[in-house]
Each structure stands twice: as structure tokens, then as C-alpha cells.
Amino acid sequence: MPMMPNQPRFAAPDADALPLYAVGEGALEAFRATLSGDQAAWLSATGFAAGLGELALLPAPGGGLAGAVAGLGDPLARARGRFHVAAAAARLPRGIYRLESDLNGPALDVEALGLLLSRYRFDRYRDQAPALAAFTAPLGVDSARLEALAEAEWLTRDLINTPASDMGPDALEEAVFALAARHGARAGAVRGDDLIARNFPLIHAVGRAGPQAPRLLDFTWGDTGPRLTLVGKGVCFDTGGLDIKPPNSMGLMKKDMGGAASVLGLAHVIMAQQLPLRLRVLIPAVENSIASNAFRPQDILTARNGLTVEVNNTDAEGRLVLADALALAAEEQSDLLVSMATLTGAARVAVGPGIAPFYTDDDALAGLIARGGATGADPVWRMPFHAPYEKMIEPGIADLDNAPSGGFAGSITAALFLRRFTGAARYAHFDIYGWQPSDAPACPKGGAGQGARALLGALPEALGL
């Protein structure tokens, strides 16, 4: 099954492309003065007030279409969302359009990216209505970079949206190898009982009851520059194991490989843009299933780095498979080690579905990630590695507890657990949701990347590229 990204592209420059004007409420009168008398009268007659998401079509002499106007509202309204031009552009008639606005810099990049993202359709199982409008690249943007970002997001969405019936460990491995081959990366995998022989006991324990063999996927790219290692949680479906989830919690568990999907999207941009670094991607790919050989509550497992873990909930499996992968990464000192995972419900309670909380001990790196999120329309929020909570993950009978009782600070204790496996590496962890709960501009309901653009924006300064 091919699982390559779709091809979001700007249309070729076209002298006949129709203008799509983006106008805020405060600039409406000045914009109206630039129109012909008939168009200005028409715009007034339609009641267009440049409210956020409003769209007005401009008539041409003879009854044709001369262009369109998208409302940008006021700054307060814009602060409550993102991809504002895309909100209006989704209703454009068929044609090719060029964006005309006073936007520049990161604001223009975000709106241009939104136009590309608005064309996404997940049509593997059902024909979807095609996007009618296409867009030329606005002047002043790096179109190749924006296309790579959009392609990465489309790949991430496709991977998450595909159900476990077609996106088990076998298919996730195929997607990893296809992406590696596309960019000339070197890919490999450790599968099944070889995980025991190669000392990945936690990955094996979590995935051995699944219908497809558990595995660790590993690819590398680049021969010079700083080392960046990305680790993505690839739990292709999570029943909760023997501590089985109730139906309302299991319904979205095809997205439990959202960390892997986001890491692969980020890796695509890094390779497509030829960033001068050495990249390694590690994905533990498993299904957390129920069978006679499933791992059990109160089992004590020994991780790759020798730490023992008491399993107090088989539904806290993501941190277990990540632990072995992080321990492997720590054996090769990276300049930056990053994990991404749909890890805890506690993170959603803390910040909701639209923000990706992240953890790092490095204040400078945290600032760069926050700035990257702001400029890349990728909302993130720093959370603390709160040292006093370390005792909550120490059960006494083993070195670590995978599911501390009490229910407090679940995202923090999960992050503290992961940090135990990172050695001395400079480390950041993202606890993402990977899902858009309802349709939003350029973000349809379904799988969604989170944290990747924020981290990408941080890399040049963080790694001295």
C-alpha cells in the first residue's frame, strides 16, 4: 500500500489569475476607494463589512468574475483563530486566484500555507468534493518551503486518518521506508522476537500480543552537521491492553500513532529542504492488543537501559515503547533529542486539543520553540519537568512506575518518566493530541500534525544551522 504524501502545490504563475483581496475591517474604506464605481457600489450593496471569514465576489463588465474579497476582521477576531484567508477561500468558485494583501513576513507565510492546507481531502475510502480554487504563490514567500510544509502536514493527516485495519505496524513500516527511499535515507527495522535479541524488551512486551509483529523502525539521513534525533510513538491501535479502555475512550485510538506521523512529516520537511544536519528517526511501531501473551498489570519489565518498570496500567503503554527507543537514542549523543507522542489525556485536560504542550529543561530552546509556534501557526505551551513529582513515578518495588496512582499531573509524570531514558541529551518532549475535533479553516476534522512547525522554526538557531 503506497503511503506517500499528496502533492499540494501552488498553481503556476498565471497572468489571468483572479485577485483575491484580503482586507481587514480597518482598511475596508481605503480598499473600496481603489475599486471601480460599479464594484464599490456592488460591495456596499452586498453588505460586505470585512468581517473575519466573509467573502464577496466582484463582478466584471459583462457578468463575469473580476475577483473576490476575503474579510480579515479586526485584530481581536484574528487572535482567536488561524488561516483566516482560507476561511473565506473555501467558498470560492472554481478558478485560479492570486492573493493580494498588505500582509508580509510570517503573517503572509501563514496565510499562504493555509491556502495550500485548505485543499486537503482524505479520499482513500470515499470520493470527496474537490477543492475548486487553486492559488498562485504570493509574492514574497518561499513557495518551495511552504509546499514542503503542506506536503508534510498532508502526510501526517493521511497516516493518522487511515484506520488500523490498513495502518498497522506493517503499513507504518512501509510508509517509513517509502519516505526514506524518496529522500535517499538509510532505513532498517528490528521486528518480532529479534527485539529481545537486540535488547528492546519494552517494545516487545507491549506489542507481542498484536496481530502484527512489534518493531523498531530506524532511519538516518545526512552525513554532516549537528545530530538531531526524532522519536515518535507508533502505537497503531491501543485497546488499553488487559486494562481495556471503555468504548468512548477507544474510539479514536487509530490516532495513537500520531507522534510517529508528526515526526515523519517533520522529517520530510528537513530532508526536502536539505537542512545541513544529521537526522535520525526512531519509531517503535506496535499494537497494544489483548491476547493470552499480553503483558499484565503488576508485571515488572527491564528496559534497554537497565531500569526496571512496574506496570500499574497496561494502558500507559506509550511511555514504555518510547523508553526503549529513547534509550537507544541516548547511546549516540545527539545535539538535540525530541520525542512526539499522543501520550496522555491529562495533557488535553490541561490545554485542550488545539495546543501541544512541550517539555524541556533548556530555557533557550523553550523560547525558540515558542517563537516557532507563534510564527508557524502551530500553537504550543511549555510545561514543567517538576522535580518534586519524581517520587510519584518511583513505586518502591521497581525503579519506575508506568502509571502513578492518584490522577494528578499525568502529563508531567509521563514526561518525567521519559526523561529517565534520555541520558545527558538536550531533550524536548511533545505531548500532542494529533486530532482536529471539528472542522476549522484549513484544518478539517480528523488527523492533524502538532508541534512539527514549532520545532522546525526553532532548529536553525537551536542547532546553529
UniProtKB/TrEMBL annotation:
This is Leucyl aminopeptidase. The keyword Manganese applies. The lineage of its organism: Bacteria, Pseudomonadati, Pseudomonadota, Alphaproteobacteria, Rhodobacterales. One of its GO terms (cellular component) is cytoplasm. Belongs to the peptidase M17 family. GO terms for molecular function: manganese ion binding; metalloaminopeptidase activity. Residues 313-320 form the Cytosol aminopeptidase domain. InterPro entries: Leucine_aapep/pepB, Macro_dom-like, Peptidase_M17_C, Peptidase_M17_N_1. Pfam families: Peptidase_M17 (PF00883), Peptidase_M17_N_1 (PF21337). One of its GO terms (biological process) is proteolysis. Gene3D superfamilies: Leucine Aminopeptidase, subunit E, domain 1 (3.40.220.10), Zn peptidases (3.40.630.10). PANTHER family: LEUCINE AMINOPEPTIDASE-RELATED, PEPTIDASE B. Signal peptide: none annotated. It comes from the Bacteria. Keywords: Aminopeptidase, Hydrolase, Manganese, Protease.
